Amino acid sequence: MYSLLAASFLASLTALSKVAIVIIVAAWLVRRGVFNESHTRALTAVVVNLALPCLIFGSIIQDFNVAAYPHWWKYPLVGAALTLGSLGVARLVFWRSRERGLTLSALASFQNAGYLILPIGEALFPERFTQFSVILFLMLLSYMPLLWSVAKFLVSHRKGTRISLSQVFTTPFYSSLLAIGLVFTGLDRFVPAIGLGAVQLVGGSCVPLATIVLGMTMGALKVSHLPSVWDTTRVVALKLVLIPALMFVALKYAGFSSGPLENSFWILEASSPPATALALQAIHYGGDEQLVCGVLVISYLAALLVMPLFFSLVEVLL
Description:
mainly alpha, Na+/H+ antiporter like fold, 14 helices, 0% strand
């Protein structure tokens, strides 16, 4: 068993290391001034409003059908349960802290659900990546509204910001609904092959571009001083240890997963570090930018070992 654990750990570490190299290089280029904030915003807009919607639409039209996914609705439900359950645990831990506690709760609850998981999934499951991505996109139906409503409030609550529907319901969200609607009504068969091919061509650029965007975002984080060891340790312990450990137990005993691919998907989501969107929310809507950015940097470094560890445990023990 130990040899299988070691082999699985090394395989997942190698996959994550490839992603990490791209992120590090992109971050370094930002730090060197090759790319600036306007470049990051422009590329982010391309990914969010074009490449990612095309990848979502193409993957769902090509691979999603009711017969293959009879319980498709469970993915957004489990995704919401993961986020809200993590938030509940975090609030129990940070309830004594007031404003800082809300920010720390967001960091311990909202993971990088897409930009990091997509390239890792492609590296780990190249032959089943379409199926992996469909599961991800279905999960994002519940996650994205929570990220841009609940998480935004937790991070920027001191400014009294309002929830904007344009941020809660994004272009990828509408792309998912459109594709699922076409599949359920049977209208997907009328989508021209040449049109779908064009969409998939653009969607094929999403994973590498999203990885670069993640690196550029990390490189733009301004950390003049690191947060306290106590705050950072609690967030890392919750987000990267306790939450994935609870997910492991749920996968083993709750029976909501249909197989190894889903097991791997959910443990990757549960062990993923905090979303970089939390830093954007703190910067643009008001919040403790130094706390958020400092915890993000340390969490991503810790995730390099934690994610392969939990992935290998699931691969071998479940």
